[in-house]
Design a protein that fits this description.
This protein is an alpha+beta fold. It is about 20% helix and about 50% strand. The protein has one domain. The chain contains three helices and nine strands, in the order H-E-H-E-E-E-E-E-E-E-H-E. The protein starts with a helix and ends with a strand.
Amino acid sequence: MMRVLLPTMLAVAMAAPAAAEFRAISDETTFRSVVDGRTLTRPLIKLQVLPGGRISGTGGGAEVSGSWDWKGGYFCRELNWRGRELGYNCQLVSVSDGKIRFTADQGQGDSADFRLR
């Protein structure tokens, strides 16, 4: 069951209800200042978005790795989990009260909220 659910959570995750208003991040400098030195967490997932364009962490006890860049106002990433490529996707990024939200497909898809630790 974990092998089915976790890739979905890692790729886009289920939408979480918004308790506070999220504001979009439209530039890479602001994005970097939000994630620099922080760990992004949600149940079963801990990730770091590193300055050199890498993503590392764990999901469901397995290694998560990938790469990222910033294109046209979006966070674009490729992820690998348990040897499975989760694909390339450009995502709208928003922040609110110690949380960061990634919305797939340039803001048109599902969202995943992470705590910033």
